[in-house]
């Protein structure tokens, strides 16, 4: 009864929230019903109810599919490389920007580092395809420096694709990734740094003993989000940069699901792959949350 009274008193606020709730129900909860497709042999001429049940047959096919495991290998390799580089570098860059005293120079650095984020992968992918071509900017620069005698198309070399994917993603997102850390550092009490300087603490000591410990909750939250998304490699980037020559190292789980579902029309198989990956992602989320509890005195960041 008390709950109903509180809802009535907050009726104007509740009405403001209502459109968002309706949106989530329509686009986030109702589609969950489609998960049953993973346990059926569904085709475009079937309805959800008329498609025959096949139990775990689709999941058995996944285990036996060498192309699926190839995409898992590529996804883990690229995502782990992105995690190690893309997680740490924004923290270092944010600290460096925060320590800059010249406000004009700080704004210039922030603007330059943010700009790539606002370009789509269609634009950035076209630039990379041009730069990494045989006569592109990258080869021309290396030949001018004497580091290469003959140009080659780097995107056609499968062995180079993982590094191209990781470094290009880092170039696009590293500046944007500093925003949360800079916001956190702006809330740190300046008197803590003043007291540390009076005690003779060096700049590195201030960073390791004040800045990073106070950023621990934000760092933990980003770690949880990054690890839980470990199996969700960037689909846009892959579709732009992948070609028939580098596909063995470029195909990730998301592009594999896209190809099997929308391109080849095997909706049940694609749904089964997506469901399996979602379950693993939830497990990774829970494990990472348990680990980060220890970094935050037993307190969870997400619960």
Q: How many domains in all?
A: 1
Number of helices: 16
What would the principal axes of the Cα set say about the shape? globular
Rg, rounded, reads 24 Å
CATH topology description: MetI-like fold
The description of the largest β-sheet is:
none
Low-confidence stretches: none
Helices and strands, in N-to-C order?
HHHHHHHHHHHHHHHH
- CATH-level-4 superfamily name: MetI-like
Would you tell me the structural class of the helices and strands?
Answer: mainly alpha
What's the mean pLDDT score? Answer: 86
TL;DR of this structure?
With 303 residues, the chain is mainly α. Helix content is 69%, strand content 0%. The protein has one domain (58-295): MetI-like (MetI-like fold, Orthogonal Bundle).
Descriptive overview:
69% of the residues lie in helices and 0% in strands. It has 16 helices and no strands. With 303 residues, it is mainly α. Helix 12 runs antiparallel to helix 16 and helix 15 (253-263) runs antiparallel to helix 16 (267-295). It is a multi-pass membrane protein. It is found in: Cell membrane. InterPro entries: MetI-like, MetI-like_sf, UgpAE/MalFG_permease.
SSE topology sketch:
Blueprint: H1 2-9, H2 11-29, H3 57-64, H4 66-99, H5 103-114, H6 121-131, H7 137-144, H8 158-173, H9 179-186, H10 190-198, H11 203-214, H12 216-228, H13 235-241, H14 247-250, H15 253-263, H16 267-295
Helix pairs in contact: 3-16, 4-8, 4-9, 6-13, 12-16, 15-16
List keywords for this structure.
69% helix, MetI-like fold, 303 residues, mainly alpha, 0% strand
